[in-house]
Amino acid sequence: MTPHRIAVLAVDQVVGLDLGTPSQVFRTARDADDRHFYAVDTCTPGGRPVRSTAGFQVLPDHGLELMEAADTVIVPGVYGAATQRHDAIEPEVTKALRAAYDRGVRIMSICTGAFVLAAAGLLDGRRATTHWAHTDGFRRLYPAVDLDPDVLFVADGRVLTSAGVAAGIDLCLHVVRTDHGSQVANQAARRCVMPPWRDGGQAQYIERPVPQAHDTSTAGAREWARQRLHESVSLRDLAGQARMSVRTFTRRFRAESGLSPTQWLLRERTDHARLLLESTDLSVDQIARRSGFGTSAALRQQLQQRIGVAPSTYRQTFKGRAPY
């Protein structure tokens, strides 16, 4: 097995945490024989040291030529001039990024790394995201980008962008899951001491705002429901678990999760069905029952609405998926 080659492109004022995220996540993705699915290396313009925002310099092993052999290029977050001016990114960097994209390479950014992709023209006309605190500056510099600051990450074809800090881990786990299925992604997440996906799972993009969880009073009810997806769970049952009235529970649930209880439960069941399709040989009828849909027709309808494919097609695509 030839590992999928990832080039992490660091430019001046790279965010230290973002720089380490791809290596940490992708190096934990392994097969049953403990062979790595990915090889991760770091490069900089000219192979020169660059400053990080964490008070240390990055001394890379490679220059931009690393990108010429890469299957995926990842740009970590940056601070300073790159988030303030169009021309702050070196021309050789933008040229190398455009060339990589033209060759069919997958391009990703973490946090404010989206500014670097935008400077290279790779986000024009695309949906993308970045750290919410940089929304105004990003829109001022790059009005041609369809910026959505309320999501954890966006996957628009071969160009993927994430929000700040932990959302970079979400994006990397999403890529592992897309490349190799849920079992490999789940194992990688456990090694990183992270959930395989946060509420809503790792769809092509997460379609809700990141919840502002000042109060987690419905968390217990959510976990209770997750253990009973195969059963009939009513709104009154959920409210009872939280010891609240239905009205109070519904209001607090939406404030914490960004969804109504009914929407959340439907999404959880769909995600569970997807996991079973990827990781088991159960029939579609059995999966429909175990995920709480009851019938294969109901499951088929939900998958079609959410991701646009039938259960059999989804299973064929993701179960035992070969490397990207």
TrEMBL record:
Alphabetized UniProt keyword annotations: Transcription, Transcription regulation
Annotated TM spans: none
Domain HTH araC/xylS-type positions: 219-317
Highest rank taxon of the organism: Bacteria
SMART domains for the chain: HTH_ARAC
InterPro entries found in the cross-reference section: Class_I_gatase-like (IPR029062), DJ-1/PfpI (IPR002818), Homeodomain-like_sf (IPR009057), HTH_AraC (IPR018060), INH-QAR (IPR052158)
Pfam families assigned to the protein according to its UniProt record, in alphabetical order: DJ-1_PfpI, HTH_18
Coiled coil stretches, renumbered: none
The protein, known as: AraC family transcriptional regulator
Protein source organism: Micromonospora qiuiae
